[in-house]
């Protein structure tokens, strides 16, 4: 009788252990699912954000995981004012933002405006008249892009220098990455904002723009 009782107790113990293990597995899966649901807000954004201007992947690469995220844009394309802005907000407090406008400025003066005579604190690439650069001393990954563009309703001879779409972009708050990786993704974001603005401006005689810019040298 005593042996039978001990066997019953051992069976009950094994049964209890199995349920404890199973419960822990279920809780782990539920916890992981809840964490995933709370940190994939960026993946729920449209594949093409800001009215189709910018790829969602850029926001995923630039911004930390977050419970929720949203994108918004502003544009003005009437008369002589052509502007466009794209922003991605996260519930974690980080923002990816870029703003473009048509300006009357030469590439040389545009570079001078941002970095001055000394360029030791920037990286820069050029292709087909397009210029892009990023500051090395900025945790925000602040980047600039210059795309030559004479809008449809403009006359090139009216410009004192040259017409171009100029863009500035950065991350406000924490980024998912830092250093060279952050500078590159913010510049890629700025370039897509610039390309969309070129489309808004219906630039005259503009050859097809490259799908992406050359990569920065890693510094």
Structure report:
By secondary structure, the chain is of the alpha+beta class. It is 37% helix and 27% strand. It contains five helices and eight strands. It has a seven-stranded antiparallel beta sheet with strand order 2-3-4-8-7-6-5, sandwiched between helices. Helix 3 packs antiparallel against helix 5. The longest helix is centred in the N-terminal third of the chain and has 37 residues, at 2-38. It is globular. It starts with a helix and ends in an 18-residue tail after the last helix. The model is unreliable at 29-37 (pLDDT under 50).
What topology does this entry show?
Elements lengths: L1 H37 L10 H4 L1 E2 H7 L6 E10 L2 E10 L4 E10 L2 H9 L6 E6 L2 E6 L7 E6 L14 E10 L6 H23 L18
Antiparallel strand pairs: 2-3, 3-4, 4-8, 5-6, 6-7, 7-8
Helix pairs in contact: 3-5
Helix content: 25-40%
Beta fraction: 25-35%
Radius of gyration: 26 Å
Q: How many β-strands, per DSSP?
A: 8
**Order of H and E elements:** HHEHEEEHEEEEH
Q: What is the molecular shape?
A: globular
Question: What is the mean pLDDT?
Answer: 83
First-to-last CA distance: 79 Å
Question: What structural class do you assign from the helix and strand content?
Answer: alpha+beta
Which strands sit side by side, in order, in the main sheet?
2-3-4-8-7-6-5
List segments where confidence is low: pLDDT < 50 over at least 5 consecutive residues. 29-37
> Mind summarizing the main beta sheet?
7 strands, antiparallel
- The number of helical segments is 5
